[in-house]
Amino acid sequence: WLSRDTVEVDKYIMDDWCGFICTTSFFCDMFEGLCYIHTKEHMAQIPQNLPVHIIAGEADPVSDYGKTVKDLLACYQANGMTKVDLKLWPECRHELLNEVNREEIEQDILSFIQGIVSA
After folding, report:
1. CA pair distance 54, 108, nearest whole angstrom
2. What is the pLDDT of residues 86-106, one digit of tens each?
3. Is 93 helix (H, G, I), strand (E, B) or coil?
4. Would you say 5 and 105 are in contact if contact means Cβ atoms under 8 Å apart?
5. Count of CB atoms within 10 A of residue 62's CB?
6. What are the C-alpha distances in Å from 3 to residues 41, 55, 63, 109?
């Protein structure tokens, strides 16, 4: 679920700071925070012309294989945001910057940033 790059997955497995089981309290706090920031009041504070480039892997179970990021895009658009786009990377999993095609993904991010800076 993490990446198709087995070297990166092995690094993750060997890292003491990764792979631990999160507490119930962590998940309660995380979901409470998500509910808090996604209220109409807080969403209205996001500038409607803020450039946002959402990226995700199509094979990422955390995003329900792209469904939740599509929902996020629709939420931003319903809030009147006009400069939001979504790139779903085929066959990619959760950690896009540790994927086998990370250079292509990095170039996509760089192109997005350069497009903003040069505008």
Report:
1. 11
2. 999 999 999 999 999 999 999
3. coil
4. no
5. 14
6. 36, 15, 14, 18
**Tokens representing residue 117 in the block:** 């800076």
Dump pLDDT digits (tens) for 7-58: 999 999 999 999 899 999 999 999 999 999 989 899 999 999 999 999 999 9
Whole-model pTM: value is 0.88
In Å, the largest CA–CA distance within the chain is: 45
Cα–Cα distance for residue pair 42/56, rounded to 1 Å: 24
Q: Look up residue 47 and give its two tokens.
A: 């500038």
Q: Which has the closest alpha carbon to 87: 109, 64, 62, 119?
A: 109
Q: Which two tokens stand for residue 94?
A: 């959760």
Q: How far apart are CA 28 and CA 49, in angstroms?
A: 32
Block residue for tokens 């998500």: 34
pLDDT given at position 119: 77
| 21-50: b (≥16 Cβ within 10 Å) or e | eeeeeeeeeeeeeeeeeeeeeeeeeeeeee
